[in-house]
Amino acid sequence: QVQLVESGGGLVQPGGSLRLSCTGSGFTLDYYHIGWFRQAPGKEREGVSCISSSRVSSSRVSTYYADSVKGRFTISRDDAENTVYLQMNSLKPEDTATYYCAADLPRDTTIQDMCVMLRGYAGRGTQVTVSS
């Protein structure tokens, strides 16, 4: 069964950190651009960060960040582990949301379009709650 599985969510105090993981089951992530989206209760889903496929360029991957998370979140990929990470530092209450990872093929989108237009196949999500 082909699916994306998110993990690493939880409850954290403001200013704290979490690392989310996105693992591919049944397929290889390095062929895909991978993105992290989030959706808070009562709000629209938004793109948080996206990273390009390793197959596009073996020497360098490109990344995209929403303005709201620049300087605080870092996306990375470990193709040997078939996993993409989202390191989240200096968390704020407004970061509270369900976080989803998504995959899309490079032929179908750029990472900016993927994040802005929320393209790709998404997993079921992991809950992040930032509260004191």
SSE topology string: EEEEEEEEEHEE
Low-confidence stretches: none
The assigned structural class equals mainly beta
Q: Strand portion, in percent?
A: 35-45%
What proportion of the residues is helical, as a percent range? under 10%
Q: Looking at the chains present, what oligomeric state does this protein adopt?
A: single chain
Radius of gyration: 14 Å
- Shape category: globular
Helix run count: 1
Termini separation comes to 39 Å
Total beta strand runs: 11
Largest sheet: 7 strands, mixed
Mean pLDDT: 94
Write up this protein.
The chain is built from one helix and eleven strands, in the order βββββββββαββ. The chain is globular and about 40 Å long. By secondary structure, the protein is mostly beta strands. Strands 2, 4, 5, 6, 9, 10 and 11 form a seven-stranded mixed β-sheet that branches. Helix content is 5%, strand content 45%. The protein has one helix at 111-117, and strands at residues 3-7, 10-12, 18-25, 33-39, 46-51, 63-65, 73-78, 83-88, 97-104, 121-122, 126-130.
Please outline what is shown here.
It is built from one helix and eleven strands; from the N terminus they run E-E-E-E-E-E-E-E-E-H-E-E. It has 132 residues and is mainly beta. Strands 2, 4, 5, 6, 9, 10 and 11 form a seven-stranded mixed sheet that branches. Strands 1-3-8-7 form a four-stranded antiparallel sheet, with no helix packed on it.
Give the SSE map.
Elements: E1 3-7, E2 10-12, E3 18-25, E4 33-39, E5 46-51, E6 63-65, E7 73-78, E8 83-88, E9 97-104, H1 111-117, E10 121-122, E11 126-130
Parallel strand pairs: 2-11
Antiparallel strand pairs: 1-3, 3-8, 4-5, 4-9, 5-6, 7-8, 9-10, 9-11
